[in-house]
Amino acid sequence: MDEMSLADLLSVTATAHPRKVALVVASDGSKITYEDLQREADRVAGALAALGIVPGDRVAIGMHNSPFFAYAYFGILRAGAAVVPLNIMLTEAETTAVLRDSGARAVLAGGPYLSVVEAAASDLETVERVFSVEGWTELGSHPAPAAEVTGDDLAVLAYTSGTTGEPKGVMLSHENLMANLRQQMAIPEAHVSVDDVLFLALPLFHIFGLNVTLGLLVMNGATGVLVERFEPVPTLRAIVEHKVSVLFGAPTMYAAWVSVPGADQYDLSAVRLAVSGAAPLAADVLRSFYDLFGVWIYEGYGLTETAPTLWSNRMSDKPRPGSVGKPLPEVEFRLIDEHGDDVELGDPGEVVVKGPNVFKGYWNRPEDTEAAFIEGWFRTGDVGVLDEEGYLYLVDRKRDLIIVSGFNVFPSEVENALLQNPKVAEAAVVGVPHGYTGEAVKAYVVLEPGAEATEAELISHAQSLLARFKCPSSIEIVPDLPHLLTGKVLRRALRT
């Protein structure tokens, strides 16, 4: 298992469990076996090889949660190429930026996002083909290539918003992703087994859904209940109907479930493990979920750059509210001050890490890669405190990152979009607490002299340029903004 690449994962499991159900589609109950999954992934690999895709090329996926996503993902890996997962909430301009930066030669897309992908790709000579899920027969039946990959080869190029407003590609190797799967499987009494039924409602284009849920599913030959779109009541029913044993979710999902009227009438007794990640979990949601369903939620912490999981409450017998738990095996860490020195126990410090799951760097961004590390340690940008028993508590973020429903939003990206409106002279964006999404985006705007604009007008402008989760939920028009002596806007003052 240690020497296996991500490209081998499906074929090994499909050989061992060909007739085992890999995926159940929650919306219609249709079932896909591992044999089916392998066959369709091979079709993807064959079609890509026929197009001339070779190891090292990048191929993007742009679609909602469906069996076709899994076919595309493992097919691209089987061809030796690297997967570029596209967030289906991106606008055409944002999609174009990712496709251009990655140099993707082909895209497999479907659903409402297909038209966005086609429009984005039409202006790019680098994209040679967009394969549509709706026209799956276009793939034909070409022999799957026998591509050889090593652990150090690029497997996934996952894009995260850049601090300058430009997307940054996080280079995750086969070994990075496989290492994190092994690390999670090493958690005592909390790993996934062949007998488990996993809940796949997290978006598969997000690293949490991609490597934790889909990766652990296929590694262990378990069965996954695949949900295209999260809705609280239908998903609760699906958990009960399919006797889901392992829940992977974001805090917004758990908060929605505990808010369902009559939630205690749903029998979740088959659930033996519930895991939360992608954003901080509120203590009242943790307690309410246990009171309603008798199941503890084990919160974890990680980043796209760490494939993703670093810490987990699954490393202890019972979750501690407010803590992300203890580090996974092979994760080394330090808490450092602004000089790079270790802080005293109990004092806050920036979390820096090492481990086999830490990424290779940012795609074509050597300066950003260099800045992300200090003497070989990856700088997470998060500030934490360690208690005497070794539990980590995250207390702040050094960066101005906003996390909306588990998705990263950099203020400068939203500010740049607002500044494209000729009526806007200056803009500053901060995160504000939100009961459902964890945080929401709030903007403060200074208008040009003599200009007039409404909040609705400015929000509509932002919606034309940004994915929905990045758009401000509120905009306050102000006469001026607080600045440092350097002229930089003091966002900290706007949060108080």
Your description of this structure?
The protein has 496 residues and is an alpha/beta fold. Helices cover 29% and strands 26% of the residues. It folds into two domains: 6-298, ANL, N-terminal domain (Rossmann fold), CATH 3.40.50; 402-495, 2-Layer Sandwich (GMP Synthetase, Chain A, domain 3), CATH 3.30.300. It contains 14 helices and 26 strands. It has a nine-stranded mixed sheet with strand order 2-1-10-9-11-12-13-14-15. Strands 16, 17, 19, 20 and 21 form a five-stranded antiparallel sheet that branches. α1 (6-16) packs antiparallel against α2 and α2 (34-51) packs across α3. The chain is globular, with a radius of gyration of 22 Å. The model has no long low-confidence stretch (mean pLDDT 92).
Short description:
With 496 residues, the chain is α/β, with parallel strands linked by helices.
Tell me the layout of helices and strands:
Blueprint: H1 6-16, E1 21-25, E2 31-33, H2 34-51, E3 58-62, H3 67-78, E4 82-85, H4 92-102, E5 106-109, H5 113-122, E6 129-132, E7 154-160, E8 168-173, H6 174-185, E9 197-200, H7 207-220, E10 223-226, H8 232-241, E11 246-249, H9 251-258, E12 273-276, H10 283-293, E13 297-302, E14 309-312, E15 326-327, E16 332-336, E17 349-354, E18 361-362, H11 366-371, E19 373-374, E20 377-386, E21 392-397, E22 402-404, E23 407-409, H12 411-419, E24 424-434, E25 438-447, H13 455-463, E26 474-477, H14 491-495
Parallel strand pairs: 1-10, 3-4, 3-5, 5-6, 9-10, 9-11, 11-12, 12-13, 25-26
Antiparallel strand pairs: 1-2, 7-8, 8-18, 13-14, 14-15, 16-17, 17-20, 19-20, 20-21, 22-23, 24-25
Helix pairs in contact: 1-2, 1-3, 2-3, 4-5, 6-7, 9-10
